[in-house]
Amino acid sequence: MNFLEITSAEWIGYIATGVLLVSFTMKQLRTLRIVNAIACVLFVLYGILLSNAWPIIFSNAAIFCINIYNLYLKKNNKV
């Protein structure tokens, strides 16, 4: 694999995967959700760059919303 031949879409995909994997090493749930939400945004961008890969876009947009909703609930002590 020649790193000079990797497209920008592939780089976003690799970075998103790395951020996702790092999120699962977090010990605090709040940190996990924040880092995972960042990975979701990167995966949505990746899906868009792949000429609208809708399964990637929809699933990660949904996970992003779930993460943000849970962070909001925690912030307001509703959970």
Describe the structure.
The chain is flat, with a radius of gyration of 14 Å. The protein is mostly helical and about 80 residues long. The model has no long low-confidence stretch (mean pLDDT about 90). The chain has one domain. About 75% of the residues lie in helices and about 0% in strands. It has 3 helices and no strands.
Distance between the termini: 47 Å
Shape: flat
SS content category: mainly alpha
Order of helices and strands: HHH
Give the biggest sheet: none
- Low-pLDDT windows of residues: none
Kindly provide the radius of gyration, computed on alpha-carbon positions and rounded to a whole number of angstroms. Answer: 14 Å
The percentage of residues in β strands lies in under 5%
Question: Care to give the gist of this entry?
Answer:
The chain is mainly α. The chain has helices at residues 8-23, 29-49, 54-75.
Question: How does the SSE layout of this entry go?
Answer:
Layout: H1 8-23, H2 29-49, H3 54-75
Helix pairs in contact: 1-2, 2-3
Main attributes of the structure:
79 residues; mainly alpha; 3 helices
